[in-house]
Design goal:
The protein is built from five helices and twelve strands. It is an alpha/beta fold. The model has no long low-confidence stretch (mean pLDDT 89). It has a nine-stranded mixed β-sheet with strand order 6-5-4-7-8-9-10-11-12, with helices on one face. The protein has a three-stranded mixed β-sheet with strand order 1-3-2, covered by helices on one side. It has three domains: 46 residues; 63 residues, Ubiquitin-like (UB roll) (Roll); 137 residues, 3-Layer(aba) Sandwich (Rossmann fold).
């Protein structure tokens, strides 16, 4: 066989392979182009079709019937609803879940929040509010104000027309970080939990010194300060209450007592 014929015979399979792969590449390109086009068309459908729009309120001052907000008791409902104003009249497909959740976490009293997109055109929001643990009295320059505080050390403004039966917590400063304040709050909570019913008359817990907790009890119409130390709170208070009638009879002028030693009660004279 001539050399040219042999070369032509060897080139023929190679040409067929190249042709076959070319067809595959062209077909894959066409399929990819079709998928991209269909995806874009579907995305535009989700964005523009009125069935997916989050409706606004029917009238001024009303709420959107398709924006459900649950769990709000003390947080500002108006402030929460304003976060979603940019989403009214837009497709829920464009709804920025993460951004809206982060905005909700910046609202006072909101501890956590979850948002669910419900097709075709509803948004459901669930709020977990903070649980106040105590009252605190905060000083700002020459003024004092009352506030609430939760176990994470977050300071909360008391909501209007809401009643809380909580102790006053002394030793907490607005200059401290929330983490530092939270340690003090949880220390006081453990103290009150250990005291149980013995602590029913406690009006104030002082956590200035975390290793020397103090409480103020109302006994016989007067405030008595008790230094409880760092442990055995219930047994020390129980021992004091058992002996208080006799103590009051012998030293009625003393209103501060050191209970940090389990086997004795020491009256602390008032500083001149």
């Amino acid at each position: 066989m001539a050399p040219q014929a042999k070369d032509k015979k060897r080139r023929a399979p190679a040409v067929r392979v190249i042709f076959r792969y070319g067809l595959i590449i062209i077909g894959a390109s066409l399929l990819l182009t079709t998928c991209i086009y269909a995806s874009q068309r579907f995305e535009q459908f989700l964005i523009r079709d009125p069935r997916f729009l989050l409706p606004g309120p029917a009238d001024y001052g009303l709420e959107s019937p398709n924006l459900e907000v649950h769990g709000v008791k003390y947080a500002s409902r108006a402030q929460i609803l304003r976060i979603f104003d940019p989403d009214l009249g837009r497709s829920v497909f464009l709804f920025p879940l993460n951004a809206r959740r982060k905005a909700l976490l910046n609202v006072r009293w909101v501890r956590d929040a979850s948002i669910v997109r419900i097709w075709p055109n509803r948004i459901q929001v669930r709020i977990e509010e903070r649980r106040p643990a105590a009252f605190v009295k905060l000083r700002a320059e020459s003024m004092e104000r009352w506030a609430l505080i939760d176990e994470e050390g977050v300071i909360l403004d008391p909501p209007p027309k809401a009643a809380f039966h909580l102790p006053l917590l002394a030793g907490v400063s607005s200059d401290e970080s929330p983490a530092q304040r939270g340690i003090r709050v949880r220390r006081a909570e453990r103290l009150i939990a250990e005291l149980g019913t013995l602590g029913d008359k406690i009006s104030e817990a002082d956590v200035t010194d975390l290793d020397d907790l103090k409480v103020t009890e109302k006994l016989d119409g007067r405030a008595v300060t008790l230094m409880l130390g760092e442990r055995n709170f219930a047994s020390r208070l129980h021992n004091f209450l058992d002996h208080y009638p006799d103590i009051h009879r012998r030293i009625p002028q003393v209103t501060t007592f050191d209970l940090r030693l389990d086997d004795r009660i020491t009256g602390v004279a008032a500083a001149n």
